[in-house]
Amino acid sequence: MTIGLSTYAFFWQWHSTAPDPISLxxxxxxxxxxxxxxxxxxxxxxxxxxxxxxxxxTADGLGIALELGTRGLSPEHLQRYLDIAQxxxxxxxxxxxxxxGHRPSLDEAIDLLGAAIPDYERAGVTVxxxxxxxxxxxxxxxxxxxxxxxxxxxxxxxxxxxxxxEHPRDTIERTRNHVKNIHVKDFSFTRRNGWVGFTxxxxxxxxxxxxxxxxxxxxxxxxxxxQIIEHWVPxxxxxETTSQLENRWTDHNLDYLRSRK
Length: 261
Hints:
Blueprint lengths: L2 E4 L4 H4 L9 H10 L4 E5 L9 H11 L2 E5 L5 H14 L3 E4 L10 H18 L2 E5 L6 H11 L4 E5 L1 H4 L6 H8 L3 E6 L1 E6 L6 E6 L8 H8 L6 E4 L9 H20 L3
GO molecular function: isomerase activity
Keywords: Isomerase
InterPro entries: IolE/XylAMocC-like, Xyl_isomerase-like_sf, Xyl_isomerase-like_TIM-brl
């Protein structure tokens, strides 16, 4: 399994909340400096207007392969991302059921994916639907199984589905035969101030509730499944402190994953 970074590993540094947002080129350069050869451009709207030839030259020059991530199942939207994928030599596009203001039913999702996936099959590109709290994991799996294409599978992220009261181990077991991509982040619950309720937030790998070893044992037989590092770094009160913590988590998580290869 190849280890990669994501735009979500630099979230507080490129997002609009950053006082001086870093560019995609900077993220790629910093990825290469860490000895990482895979980068997932995920939920990064600027890619839709980017000079893709320039992005490709930068990635190629740094020895970095690319993946994409978006949201939505409409054939028109997925075709747009297939076009981007082909121009960037991307073979995995992560997506999600939801678009802004609309969550398709299972039947709608099957119809939408059934219309979009044949073009992905012809291009040799895979769509990986992410597990997350707004859509039950069994529903995502049912859509994948109904379409029945080798170019459609699951982007496994057990942390997301916890918010829907799905146990991480259950999410892993339900998806293990369809996993095409993994978003790796650890997470934990902490008591809120005054002990009134809990906060679900990220933490460095190995310090939270993710049973990483079980997850990897479950999906390891799958060929070509990459591990993409993401973070849920809580805001630390100011951009500089938050960005520094984000970078420390990246260093830690890379060391953690490399030690288990």
